[in-house]
Design brief:
Number of domains: 2
Largest sheet: 7 strands, mixed
CATH superfamily of the largest domain: Type I PLP-dependent aspartate aminotransferase-like (Major domain)
């Protein structure tokens, strides 16, 4: 290594100094981050270690990404072998064997008649491609006025402008507005706090039937797609009633509208099935994957579509340009090698089955925390679970000020990485987690809740 390069390297200790930290944008307010920065230095299995040597149990798979665990030798060896062969292929002119293998492997595992895959680098690219695919599909099939996308409030589909426009999270949308036109939002299936003041199951699944009403009010000849996460994340793990997604499927079929599932989080075994589409027994027209497909080893994502959608893009190049969408690193051979190894690991070790078993154990553990009297609801499937905190379980009255952030931060101090927000906390550990580690998650959450409540009493 040259002296010039050596001079530009900083040590782990130096990396915690404010003068170095101020030079990187992070996902929180930088002025807060520099006060108590979290810098991870090492990972193995289901654990992280920061630059100070503190250990953390990764109950979040990084951010629902590390599906087969940190330092997985199968994935690393596959990538190491590919490093010696080729790390980049000319995406503008063609593809490579690893990308073709990954596409075919995904189709073999996919629900229904999924037939074709567009590979990309991350979830935002995958959902952005889905939006473009829906619009281009209708254009190619003689319905060029169908361009609108109906999605949901409290959803998160990505950071690119199209995927952000489809997202329904006010805090992330507002700072970037005005956003792209043609996106309409409807209320999500938040049964615990129904926006229509109803109670399941006597609600007639208004949240689903309303989608049909929105399509009618917008005019079906202008609507291209309905885009949803099978289980929503950013609203606090929005777990729909069993009837919800089948009703959306029927509404879309009736109106010649494509149904898009954003499975960037729920895909690749997270819910205990390879896809949430399998879990809910509903096949979308387009299905988006990311996060867990990469295992955290190299950026890779995918947008899959059913046969009738793919057929629209097949034809004479003089009149049909195919799917007009491209990214520099799509189908990257190194990323594809990682994706293939991750899928092999999940299938060969039956990690979907482990996600179901450990998910049941984790849910039982979360239910045991109801003894604290502040857990109003437990939601999710498999190893994608969340709890909503309330001041009064009977009335569902929320805490004021909210307590979720306090509990999540206390858990982090106690060595547990989770996803937390104002009123809820979620866990999504690697799919290969074992019983002892699940129990440790619950024990740490139990301790963190106790300490947070005690601190609130002490500080008035």
């Amino acid at each position: 290594m040259s002296d010039a390069i050596m001079l530009n390297r900083i040590s782990d200790a130096q990396a915690t100094e404010e003068k170095f930290l101020r030079k990187i944008f992070v996902r929180s307010q930088m002025s807060e981050f520099v006060q108590d920065p979290l810098l991870m230095a090492k990972a193995d299995g289901v654990h992280y270690w920061d630059v100070k040597g503190n250990q953390y149990l990764d109950a979040l798979s990084g951010i629902y990404v590390v599906s087969v665990g940190h330092n997985n030798r199968r994935v690393i060896d596959a990538m190491r072998a590919q490093l010696d062969a080729m790390t980049f292929s000319p995406a503008m002119h063609g593809s490579n064997p690893l990308a073709v293998q990954l596409a075919n492997r995904l189709i073999d595992l996919a629900p229904g008649d999924m037939s074709t895959v567009k590979l990309s680098s991350g979830g935002s690219e995958a959902t952005e491609a889905a939006i473009k695919m829906a619009r281009q599909y209708h254009n190619l099939t003689g319905n060029p006025t169908k361009y609108k996308v109906i999605s949901r409030y409290q959803s998160w589909h990505g950071s690119t402008m199209g995927s952000l426009s489809a997202s329904g999270l006010a805090s992330r949308r507002a700072v970037n507005e005005p956003l792209a036109p043609g996106f309409i939002h409807a209320f999500p299936p938040t049964c615990f706090r129904c926006p229509f003041g109803k109670e399941y199951p006597n609600c007639e699944i208004t949240c689903a039937s309303l989608i049909g009403d929105v399509i009618s009010m917008e005019d079906p000849s202008t609507v291209a797609a309905v885009m949803v996460e099978p289980i929503g994340h950013t609203g606090g793990i929005i777990d729909p009633p069993a009837e919800y997604l089948p009703m959306l499927r029927e509404v879309c079929d009736r109106n010649n509208v494509l149904l898009i599932f954003d499975e960037v989080i729920t895909g690749v075994g997270r819910t205990g099935e390879m896809f949430a589409a399998d879990l809910f027994e509903v096949t979308p027209d387009i299905l988006c994957l990311g996060k867990g497909l990469s295992g955290g080893y190299a950026p890779v994502a995918a947008t899959m579509c059913r046969q009738h959608v793919a057929d629209a893009f097949w034809g004479d190049a003089a009149t049909n340009p195919g799917f007009v969408e491209g990214h520099t690193f799509e189908g990257n051979p190194l990323s594809s090698a990682a994706g293939l190894a991750v899928l092999d690991e999940i299938v060969d070790r039956d990690l979907c089955g482990n996600a179901r078993r450990m998910g049941d154990r984790l849910r039982d553990g979360l239910e045991s925390l109801q003894v604290h009297g502040i857990i109003g609801d437990i939601r999710g499937k498999g190893l994608f679970l969340g709890v909503e905190f309330v001041k009064d379980v009977a009335t569902k009255e929320p805490f004021a000020p909210p307590i979720g952030m306090e509990i999540g931060r206390r858990a982090l101090e106690n060595g547990l990485l989770t996803r937390f927000d104002a009123h809820w906390l979620a866990v999504g550990p690697p799919l290969m987690i074992n019983e002892a580690q699940v129990d440790q998650i619950i024990e740490t959450l139990d301790r963190s809740i106790k300490e947070t409540l005690a601190n609130r009493v002490a500080t008035g």
